[in-house]
Amino acid sequence: MDSSRSAQRAVIQFLPAERERASQIYLRMKEIYEEQCLTRYSIFRWCQRYEAGRVNIKDFPRPGKTHVVIHSATISAVDELIWHNRWITTREIAVQLSISKGTVHHIIHKRLGYGKVCAQWVPKHMSENQKTARMGVCLTL
Predict the structure, then answer these.
(1) How many domains is the chain built from?
(2) At 123, which helix (H) or strand (E)?
(3) Burial letters for 87-124: b for 16+ Cβ neighbours within 10 Å, e otherwise?
(4) What angle do CA 137, 140, 141 make, to 5 degrees?
(5) pLDDT tens for each residue of 16-64
(6) Does the pLDDT value for residue 125 go beyond 80?
(7) Domain, as residue range, for 102
(8) Left if phi > 0, otherwise alpha if psi is -120 to 50, otherwise beta: which for 119?
(9) Residues 6+ apart with CB under 8 A from 84
């Protein structure tokens, strides 16, 4: 049994067409969905919305901070700024690219894998060339 909210809202939208009252809908849904059932208040509220003429079972978008999609162009721009100036700060990058400091922080640490060492951005992991060079130095010692 699909216990998702949208499935339950579809049931709530359908049952009033069969002359079911909100309290009867709640009891029937409680038997079927058990712990995953919407609350009584939510069922009553959705019944009112459908009686008022609403046809969509999805939530309307809410105001607030929008989700930012990080494009490869933005990642490469951040990487380019870091390579040109290793002492650049996240605030300076955010101002130059007109993106938030949180997005810059996510790109630097999660996408590019950089960390600050002595106030300079460096890769957290060595490249293959660096690994072979290190291995060569170790073997000569």
Answers:
(1) 2
(2) strand 120-123
(3) ebebeebbeebebeeebbebbbeeebebeeeeeebeee
(4) 90
(5) 888 889 999 999 999 988 889 999 999 999 999 988 988 888 878 778 7
(6) no
(7) 72-111
(8) left
(9) none
Return contacts of 33-38, CB within 8 angstroms, 24+ apart.
33/1, 33/3, 33/8, 36/3, 37/3, 37/8, 38/5, 38/8, 38/12
108 near 78, Cβ under 8 Å? yes
**pTM for this model (two decimals):** 0.44
Here the tokens at position 92 are: 């300076």
Residue with tokens 């957290």: 124
Helix and strand tally (H, E) in the chain? 7, 2
Q: Which two tokens stand for residue 68?
A: 């930012």
Domain shared by 46 and 77, yes or no: no
Domain presence at residue 117: no
- Could you report the per-residue pLDDT of 91-124, keeping only the tens digit for each? 999 999 999 898 999 999 989 988 876 666 767 7
